Amino acid sequence: MDILHAIGNTSLVQLRKVVPPGCADILVKLEWENPTGSLKDRVAHALIARAEKGGRLKPGDTVVEYTGGSTGASLALVCAAKGYRLRLVTSDAFSQAKLDQMAALGAELALVPSEGGLTTKKLILDMIEAARNLSKEPHTYLTDQLNNQDSIAGYHPLGEEIWSQTKGEIDAFVHSVGTGASSRGVAEVLKQKKPSVKIIAVEPAESPVLSGGEPGPHKIEGVGIGYVPPLYEKSLIDEILPVKTEDAKEAARRIAREEGLFAGTSSGANVLAAVEVGKHLGPKAKVVTLLADSGLKYLHTDLYRRR
Fold first, then answer.
1. pTM (2 decimals)?
2. Which of 44, 171, 221, 278 sits a CA distance of 20 to 30 A from 62?
3. Is 82 designated active site?
4. Which of 40, 219, 249, 297 is catalytic?
5. Per residue in 18-65, pLDDT tens?
């Protein structure tokens, strides 16, 4: 067995302290248990394995991707395990720890400057264009996470795990939307098994494009790209909840202090939204969300920096 066999089968735990009286049970999947500390290990493995199987990626080829950090680190892990060169387009908008982790795992980084360290639609589009230019070189494969249908299949096992761990007793699944692949992959599995399961999408309140609003800058890394992602499937989503960046950060700090669960900003947004859903559904319901990545990736950002 190699490191890739360590991906998946993460723990599911119940929140105890941050859930108000009369709320549903809130269960969180500890996706930082994946090797790079992020749920993106799942999609990176699928993107590479499926490209190999389909003949799109061959021995000696170079893999290229645009990334906010977590997918890049995950691709770096998979490419290191399989022996591929990896070139990543990223930005100073994302935490230094993420950039350092990608480089440590052997990725070659090209940085696109941001507007004041903020995630904006322009930044995402500039990163995509830079990656597409790199992928024009011979013997190169662009994984193209925002458009690649292989991403969705990468999250089907996550849906199966949630179904199994809850013994089918799940009333809602709540998750922030970046590429849209994780919500869609989980939703496809859960809706097939139990059509009444509610799927709730979470997005930055400063950039509420899924709700029909205008894009705007925000600091919830890895989500809210400023336009509706191509893999997002509106028909699978029952509700969209906006969460402000500062509220997501405070929720992440609170679950660290009160629950001992050390996660990133989007995980804070997930928990905040899950509690809102849980209050509506009431004490007999079960709501599942994801702690998408480890707080270790954010130690040198204002999320956890000592004041």
1. 0.95
2. 221
3. no
4. 40
5. 999 999 999 999 999 999 999 999 999 999 999 999 999 999 999 999
